[in-house]
Amino acid sequence: MKPVVKACIGRTAFTLEEEAYNILKEYLDSLEKHFSQNPSGKEIMEEIEVRLAELLSEKCSSSGVVSVQMAREACDTLGSVKDIDEEPKSSGDNGKKARKLFRNPDDKILGGVCSGLAAYFDKDTILFRIIAIGIFLLFALTAARAAFWVPVAAYLALWLAIPEARTVGQRYQMRGEKNTVESIMYNAGKGAREIGNSARQFNKEHPDLLRTVARSVSAIVGILLILISFTALIALALSAAGASLALPVSLATLFSSLAGPGNVTLCIIAIMATLGIPFICILYSGILMTFNLKSPKWKPGLLLFLAWIAGLGILGYLGASSAIYFDSGERLYSDMDLGSGSRDLRIVMENSDADYDYIYLDADEDCYKLVMTDGDKVYLYPTIRLCRDQEAEGIEVRETSVRFTEKNMLPDFCTYSDGVLSIAPTVLDKDSRIREIGREAIIRIPASTQVQVEPPRYHDFSTEQCHTNIRALKDGKCPRLF
């Protein structure tokens, strides 16, 4: 068993092997003796202890005990008095700091991108956070609000592209500094020259003033982010609820018709994730900034980003598959000759006498369109178009539709018997997908032939009528939907 010693270095408690403790004590004593005559000697020694503590914390993170080898490696990294005497005027490439871009894990709200950029450009982190928030608000509140996701995607791309400063050396390289005694001495001397005695005195008397100001600004920005994101999430929730109430078609039927009955739940989750996660990220950032919290080690920001990417991917897949499905349609025609014996024609719209929740009827002298809904069911009737022809000797009906499945089958929604033309609707519900669109019954008749649609959806093709109880279309006159 090796004896150990507990000691505090740079305000951090360590457990050290006894020989390691003697090595570090001898090292610090030699440096303190060297800087005893330096006006900034106290500040230099404080900074050396802090950096030594960082190195030791990094090296003994797994075992918890500082060994002899760890102590010697930390001392070699910082350098000794001999190193300072050999290169007393080195300041790092003639004063130019060679920085490398890293994400800053010690000053992050989400990924540390803004604080990493601030360190790289030697600016205050608050400045970059305000710029980032301003860019997001510019997209969210102006004419470009439809592309509010662009700055969010840009931030997430930087998060993935910029590595995190994981080691002590990388954290100092991020600021263009070397983690050596020589660098510490140079920076302390430079600080003394730039700040001056009066500024140094003020900093000693008010050490937390700048930190308090920065903390206040961060809290104000955080509260603003919370309000914006909370308002946006409420607006999204109300929009979803309003859409489900205002639309004549249930969302389940709508998504099933477009994406297929097996993809309804997946489609809804993907839409919610794509629209809501950016605002959840903003809310999370606002909470961290307002209450000065550190992001937990399980990286919720990264998990939210992956969920957002997954939502986008699912929407892209469903959209592409639906586009391929609807692009594969083929228009088919079927002709019927009703003969020349009849002078008039009655049309029956099958199931049109059923109860309904919503109805849309738009008709004039040449056209008749009808859509009805009953719960989750939607009755889409083919459009009836009349073509009056002076030279026509009889009544001819042409059925036409665009089929996405069973393309070899001709349209068959019209049947004729004893002067009555029956037209069947396409019925959509939450368990079905659109299999054909653009259904029309084109009826060519002599000029003297009378045509009428039987009650309860009566129309005699002599006047114009437009009727609906769909709130979104109820504006005095129905717009043309088809």
Describe the structure.
There is one protein chain. This protein is an alpha+beta fold. It folds into three domains: 99 residues, no CATH class; 117 residues, no CATH class; 144 residues, no CATH class. It has 13 helices and 16 strands. Helix 1 runs parallel beside helix 3 and helix 12 runs antiparallel to helix 13. The radius of gyration is 38 Å and the shape is rod-shaped.
Which residue ranges are poorly predicted, with pLDDT under 50 across at least 5 consecutive positions? 88-95, 191-196
Instruction: Please state the structural category.
Output: alpha+beta
With helices defined by DSSP (H or I, 4 residues minimum), what is the helix count? 13
Order of helices and strands: EEHHEHHHHHHHHHHHEEEEEEEEEEEEE
Question: How many β-strands, per DSSP?
Answer: 16
Topology (elements, then pairings):
Blueprint: E1 4-9, E2 12-17, H1 18-34, H2 41-59, E3 65-66, H3 68-78, H4 81-86, H5 113-121, H6 125-141, H7 149-161, H8 168-173, H9 181-205, H10 209-246, H11 251-259, H12 264-291, H13 300-327, E4 330-339, E5 344-349, E6 358-363, E7 367-374, E8 377-380, E9 383-389, E10 395-403, E11 414-417, E12 420-423, E13 426-428, E14 436-446, E15 450-453, E16 465-468
Parallel strand pairs: 2-3, 5-12, 5-15, 9-14
Antiparallel strand pairs: 1-2, 4-10, 6-7, 6-16, 7-8, 7-9, 8-13, 10-14, 11-12
